[in-house]
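Researcher: Following up on the earlier apo prediction. This time include the ligand. It's zinc ion, with the SMILES given after the sequence.
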Amino acid sequence: MSSLEHHDLLAGLVRLHILNHAAQHEIYGQWMIDELARHGYKLSPGTLYPMLHAMERKGYLFCRRAREGRTVRKLYSATEFGKAGLALARVRLRELTGGGMKAKEKARQKKSSRRSRGRAETARAVF
Ligand SMILES: [Zn+2]
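Model: Understood. Below is the ligand-bound prediction.
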């Protein structure tokens, strides 16, 4: 667990990041490690894999095994429970990141983001 700085604080965000992608497409461990690195999270397989397994055990992720040549790859996607948790976390994150905004500004931003952006892009802005 030492590969992730401020682990206690950021582990939740990393889980949400995983869910965010798993809700859009199937993911696998190494892809997720590379993707998280792109966002500044340096996770070792020894940190990420137990995280994926725990999220599967808790019902956030569904895992299927796909044969690729001689190896079997585990592909994860978000369950309905996981998507519901992600939606709730997005609301909470908005409260956190938008806390300093005036109500009027907030409403205006909400309106314009609804008009110009799809859900996926809005989510990307949050993370
Ligand atoms: Zn990402």
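Model: The radius of gyration is 16 Å.
Researcher: Noted. I'll compare it with the apo version next.
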